[in-house]
């Protein structure tokens, strides 16, 4: 789990994972602090365990952060510091694949910064960012924020912007996106080659995924995805 390198981002659905979310004092990875860490452990698409803790950042929480997540200085004053909270979080996630919304550009960077600061290493868990997945699966949507995706799937958005509530909502969104991925794969398997009529199969090459004829090498027809 702790390593000199970071884990790679996956762009697929997995049935077993830990979905997590952070609340912070702001959006700067360099200077802002984590004030809440929450996660849900999922096995075979079902939540089996939850984790959540407020974190005392050691600095006043700006009013604009409180306006978004409703976390105040009074709420975190008796909460553990990041050293303890992060250790508990790492124990919860183990070596699981991580899932979250916009974690590639935000949450993972906070986690990498803190693990490097505290342990001198990063975590090497692979992870799935549902923002990237949603953009691939639902290109027809103009916005892919978590609340927008929940509304698209008619899921409750009550309590949004608190970490555990966002985890529960995002977990349901990820399961819906998983069905989109499966449907896309099944659809691609029914596409026939324009040259020989054989079924086309999804493959991965130097430049990413594409459809290739199953009669290869006799037929070398391909189609971009």
Topology pattern, helix = H, strand = E = EEEEEHHHEHEEHHHEEE
Residues in helices, as a percent range: 25-40%
End-to-end CA span: 34 Å
Strand pairing plus helix content: what structural class?
alpha/beta
Rg over alpha carbons: 20 Å
Shape: elongated
Write structural notes for this entry.
It is built from seven helices and eleven strands. By secondary structure, it is α/β, with parallel strands linked by helices. The protein has a six-stranded mixed beta sheet, with helices on both faces. A hairpin with an 8-residue loop joins β10 and β11. α5 (130-137) packs parallel to α7 and α6 packs across α7. The longest helix is centred in the C-terminal third of the chain and has 27 residues, at 163-189. The two termini are 34 Å apart.
Core attributes:
7 helices; six-stranded mixed β-sheet; 35% helix; 225 residues; three-stranded antiparallel β-sheet; alpha/beta; 24% strand
Task: Please provide a brief summary of the model.
The chain has helices spanning 63-69, 73-76, 82-93, 107-119, 130-137, 146-152, 163-189; strands at residues 2-3, 9-10, 17-24, 34-43, 46-54, 98-100, 122-123, 127-129, 200-205, 208-213, 222-224. The protein has 225 residues and is of the alpha/beta class.
């Amino acid at each position: 789990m702790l390593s000199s390198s970071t884990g790679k981002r996956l762009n697929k659905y997995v049935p077993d994972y830990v979905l997590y979310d952070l609340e912070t004092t702001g959006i700067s990875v360099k200077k802002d602090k984590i004030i809440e860490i929450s996660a849900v452990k999922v096995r075979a698409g079902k939540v089996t365990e939850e984790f959540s803790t407020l974190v005392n950042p050691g600095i006043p929480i700006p009013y604009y952060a409180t306006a978004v997540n409703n976390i105040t200085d009074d709420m975190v004053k008796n909460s553990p510091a990041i050293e303890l909270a992060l250790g508990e979080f790492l124990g919860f996630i183990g070596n699981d694949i991580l899932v979250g919304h916009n974690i590639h550009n935000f949450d993972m960077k906070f986690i990498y910064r803190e693990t490097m600061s505290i342990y001198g290493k990063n975590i090497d868990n692979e992870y799935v960012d549902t923002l990237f997945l949603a953009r691939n699966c639902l290109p027809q949507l103009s916005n892919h924020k978590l609340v927008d995706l929940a509304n698209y799937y008619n899921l409750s958005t009550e309590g949004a912007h608190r970490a555990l509530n966002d985890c529960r909502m995002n977990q349901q969104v990820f399961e819906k996106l998983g069905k989109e991925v499966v449907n896309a794969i099944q659809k691609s398997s029914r596409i026939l080659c324009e040259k020989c009529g054989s079924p086309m199969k999804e493959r991965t090459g130097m430049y990413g995924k594409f459809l290739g004829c199953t009669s290869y090498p006799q037929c070398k027809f391909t189609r971009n995805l």
